[in-house]
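Support case: user asked for a sample of complex input and structure output to validate their parser. Sending the pair below.
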Amino acid sequence: MRSYRALIRATAKAALAYRFSLLLGLGAVLVQLVALLAVWRVILAESAVNGFTWPQMRAYLLVAFAAGTVVSLLGDFRMAFRILDGDVALDLVKPIDYQKARFAEAVGGLWIELILIGVVVGITLAVTGGVDTPAAPALALFVTSMLLLVPLKFLIVYVSTLTCFWTQNYMGVQWARLAVVNLLSGALIPLAYLPGWLASVAQWSPFAGLTSTPALIFLGRVDGRHGLQLVAVQLGWVLVLWFGARLVWRAGLRRLTVNGG
Amino acid sequence: MRTVRLYLRLLGAHFRSLLEYEADFVILVVATVLMQVVNIVFLAALFAKVPALNGWTFWSVLMMFGAVALAEGVGSLFFDGMWSLAWQINRGELDYFLVRPYPVALQSSSANIGVNGLSNIVMGTIMISTGLAHVDIAWTPWRVLLGVVLLISSVVIKLSINLATNAVSFWLSSPTPLFAFAMHQVGDLARFPLSIYPLALKAALGAALPFAFISFFPVAYLLDSGQSRWIGLLTPLVAVYCAAAAAIIFKRGMRRYESAGN
């Protein structure tokens, strides 16, 4: 445990060194926030659509922005290149668990991401007006859901980088992941707008937990029981992916060839 | 002519080396198609619930998305090397280019090939032509010609902005083209009708960095809708202006280049 805590501390200190990669990742999420805010402001100015009012959609998009920013500092490229460059061989001789170590690094970068989220959310609220915060029980459930989002997002990114054991080019895998996550998480558009079958696929997929679940709870669009059920699905996926990732890792190691010495 | 032939040969060499990793090639192509499909699903889901966005229909916004995809695709497929300009400057690799009897900017932009551009060109073309097929335009030879001119101008503007923003690396001397990439992302805003944005963004996208001339203004002119449709007619002029500005910035930057020193 001590070694992982040390990793968290080390990453937290080094976080500012990766500010460029952070800003790079932030750019896309920020542009999407600005574009979608402008789109929905125009559409919802006249009347609510699908039960979403403008203040609600604003809150939804801000939660989506926060969810999109969390766990992006230590970009997946660092993890991918560890495998592509063969540095992973060095990790194999260290007496710590590879997956836990990468998770510790992701946690270490959280503070700077939270500051950025605070700044952007603050500015947006100042410019476009405030949002209603939910009542205490729903707020507690929202916080739980946001906390579960951290391991969930880490695992989805982590598993996608493990594909580098099989492919040489990580770029395409990253793009595909971003596209699928953007749609099925509800970050691009609330799942309620998608065609019925696609919405239910998304609802039960691990991706809904990346935006839709915390956002719907925050807006109070789901009642207590339904909210609990959604968070349970989130937790279920965290467990499945945590152990599933170990299987992928083991299979990947068998494919690993590292040159030179 | 010789320049074009040489350019294509340089690209061809990269293309062949790309095909060596077949799985990666397929993944890149599939990923780009997937990204555009997600865009289309998003637009379809949005417009299924609302008839129009500030007066713009699904088909017109689809065309704007398509125009951005097409311009981006040409940039990646034929001029992807621009994005490594920062790296080439930082590592002093421009030295090699300077001793060859061939324009430096072209050597730089042919240093790489982005096969994702291929799928973006195809998807962009499909999106634009589907949009065109669903809107009511009285086609005359003059209008067809104008459409082609607008399309070419739109692509030239995107390429010029790419070159100009990447040439900023001559001054920043960072190994990654952060500025160019940030501007590229800002350009994604121009996929939506400019009229939905606040004034400051309109000015930024319409004048400072004229991304809106890649998609919004030409489409608005062609569809003959919106309040200021005539602005689309300026697109070729904006293209000439952007290309000239990019050339000047690149030349100025070249004068600052002092290699890396070994």
